[in-house]
Amino acid sequence: MIICSAIAIGYVLGAIPFSFIVGKYYGKIDIRTVGSGNSGATNVFRSLGKKAAAMAFAGDFLKGVAAVLIGMALWGYDYGIIAGAGAILGHCYPVTLKFKGGKGVATSAGVLLALNPMLIVYLLPLYIVLVKVFKIVSLSSIIIAAATPILSYFMGMPDNFLRFALVASLFVIYRHKSNIQRLLAGEEKKTI
């Protein structure tokens, strides 16, 4: 019962569609009908600029943090992980947008920060360097997702966190499948 409650709390928070909300109220657009059609912060950046993207990213990031903190406060660390997983699922498959959400990068980052702040200390600078070098957010996100469970292992994280990091990373990479196809075809647009 606690597992279901943790997932539900995370899912409800994750399903708050911040990119959609920012698009509607800041840019007067449905973010799903412009750019890549993805309801995530990168598409908000491409379609509405830095300020709108920062708002969308902050909302998506903070809902991941909130889910973990609530799960941990109510039931402990392991249930914080479960609530965080629920938030990622809610972000990617929100009932509020007919189960068509973002790719889970910002929400996953929020979950990781809440579970292990030191992980973000290493991953954020690497992400910034990757974006500056490749100028492709999707490629940078995929590399960071792949690096997360590896870095977690070398940081000596507990097994439950390692399992979560591996599954979440594979999920985020899976959500980038269309980006991977475009990268392999040399057709992925530079973001910056």
The largest β sheet comes out as: none
Work out the number of β strands: 0
Query: Which regions are unreliable across 5 or more consecutive residues at pLDDT < 50?
Result: none
Mean pLDDT: 96
Strand content: under 5%
Give the fraction of residues assigned to helices: over 70%
Amino- and carboxy-terminal Cα gap:
45 Å
Shape: globular
Count, helices: 10
Query: What is the rounded Rg?
Result: 16 Å
Helix-strand sequence: HHHHHHHHHH
The number of domains is 1
Structural class: mainly alpha
Question: Key features?
Answer:
192 residues, mainly alpha
Write a structural description.
The protein has helices spanning 2-14, 18-26, 41-48, 50-75, 77-92, 105-115, 117-134, 137-154, 159-175, 177-185. The chain has one domain. The protein contains ten helices and no strands. The model has no long low-confidence stretch (mean pLDDT 96). 76% of the residues lie in helices and 0% in strands.
Topology:
Layout: H1 2-14, H2 18-26, H3 41-48, H4 50-75, H5 77-92, H6 105-115, H7 117-134, H8 137-154, H9 159-175, H10 177-185
Short description:
With 192 residues, this protein is mainly alpha-helical. The chain has ten helices and no strands.
